[in-house]
Fold this sequence. Notes:
Layout: H1 9-20, E1 50-53, H2 64-68, E2 73-78, E3 81-89, E4 102-104, E5 118-124, E6 133-151, E7 155-156, E8 160-170, E9 173-175, E10 178-181, E11 196-200, E12 203-206, E13 219-222, E14 228-237, E15 245-249, E16 252-255
Antiparallel strand pairs: 1-16, 2-3, 3-6, 4-5, 5-15, 6-13, 6-14, 6-15, 6-16, 7-8, 8-9, 8-12, 8-14, 10-13, 11-12
Amino acid sequence: MPDLNRQSRREMLRRSSLAAAGVGAVWVAPTVDTFLSPAAAASLNCVGPPQTVDWSTMTENLNNSSLAAGSLTTMATLGGVDMNFQFTGAISTLNFSSDATIHRTGVAPTLLTGNQTGSFVMKRTATIATTTVTLTITFSQNITGLTFTILDIDRIVGTFQDRLTLSASLNGFAVTPTFTPQTGVGGSCNGQAATVTANGGGVFTGTAQIANDCTRANLLVALGAAQVDTFVIEYTSLEGTTGPQHIGLGDVSWFC
């Protein structure tokens, strides 16, 4: 019995000629490029051991001129990944003098913000009411496990009330961090209650005055397994006209 599924050489040549001429050809939808979703961007993450930017090992005033100008500034490069800072908004309200950026225990000037051995301090000394400074932290590759603490979120009635709006993203798509106000006792808390209030939507405010080195004014930020390439801190005051007003950024860790 003949094989009905088998084509003769002549038939194969005939079909090939027809296809070349466009006869009986099957239309195929064109491929359309799209922006990468977070899931699709997963393949772009770096691979390597855990990394930590330890402020206590960094040099005072390393990048003040660049930061004050609002330039994109590489603060650290670890495991082949750049961590960049850029300030926008009311930059003129920030004090970028020697007591305003990197602080280390035992190295003058020292501001023991949040009871840390080292921190990056954002100090506002000019007009602060209703003005906002934005710090955008970017990474040159996708990272996971991003973790750090924002320090000394508090309030002095009539002088300032810290207000932070925090957000994270990957390739422009929002990523949801986990925020944990710290309630444990560390530093000179003297029985004071925790001062950080969550207002929803990544917004946090300080509710009472507290010692600079008390850990109960700190907020832990963690991204866990989520990949991220950008974190934004919008910093303003809900009351008062002039500072001093400051918050700190603790050591920054990630997996790469």
